[in-house]
Amino acid sequence: MEIKLGLRENWKQFSLLVLVNSLVGGMVGLERTVVPLVGTEVFKINADLVVFSFIIAFGVVKAFTNLVSGLLADKYTRKRVLIWGWLIGLPVPFLLGWGPSWNWIIAANILLGVSQGFAWSMTVNMKIDLVGPKKRGLAMGLNEAAGYGAVGLTALLTGYLAAHYGLRPQPFYIGIAYTIIGLLLSIFIVKDTRQFARLEAATVKVTTAGEQAHKPSLLWVFKETTLKNKNLFAVSQAGLINNLNDGMSWGVFPLLFIAAGVGLEGVGWIKAIYPVVWGLGQIITGPLADRIGRKPLIVWGMFVQVLGHIVIGLELLPPQTSGLVGSVFLGAGTAMVYPALLAAVSDSAHPSWRASSLGVYRFWRDIGYAVGALMAGIVAQFVGLIWAVHIAGILTFLSGVLVWVRMKETRPQ
Description:
The protein has about 425 residues and is mainly alpha-helical.
């Protein structure tokens, strides 16, 4: 069978990978509304930093898994690593639903971090392989829309189930279905895409990030992506700060709004609207990144997120209203940023080491979960939860300015 690059030419496998990534995202959505409250109400944990420890564990493990996922994909194929991700994720909903102590919740998040690092990374790489260079923004928009749309809808559904049936175990039944369906699809229907990346690599003579077009070491790619290439550095720090916001809100918002008198279903809506806007918005912003470029969406997306912090942090509206409006801004800003960041990395890295560079970028991006949760826990312990929102807003503004100053447009002309 002849291999051709393009979304139209590969729409069946692309659509299947969109479905698979919605299941991957749904596994994260299991935790958005319920797990912080499991810590405070089921296990009676009073220290915010201890409650947020599950996010720190998730973020650190997922970040390091992202770092090696590209190498493993090149060595063992994308499909095999995707299947590993689902196998590792199988115990997660059981640990969340029936774990007898908080340490079991931490263990679940270690497994979830590895699972997400393998499975989400592979859906990203496989879609980029299939579509080629012309439609990367659209591909990433659809991928992240599916993933984060499922995060939001699952967060809303778990909030509803928790309000009506209790915090455990009913909200986590959904995760059992996600893992079984995702694993079966990945084993029996998904096809590997490494040959598409090889086809694209054969047509590229010079890498946009230097002359090294052969397969370099991970150390070389790590240095190039983290420090040496100005565009990749700007993108990596923006990804970190973006997920710092998500990690902060993941832990802080349920506790902050419950303390302000918002009910559990209301918190579910606040936690759902952020990733739903984030996810569905990328159906628009992904193709837009192909039309107007990556940099404008990244810069202005960071500034729109700052507006979300201002609305929530200054408490100018009633608690639930401020949570919903602020979450819309946070979601819209993240929708602008997310596909543009992934497309910018793909633009700047040669196909022969693109999977590894995406892994390094996703390492720094997902370390943001841990940094955000750690920052929020420490700040909340000393000056209160609301100050975690203020500090995240300041860091987001500075990150947007840095991209404005340091990054050059990467969109292929």
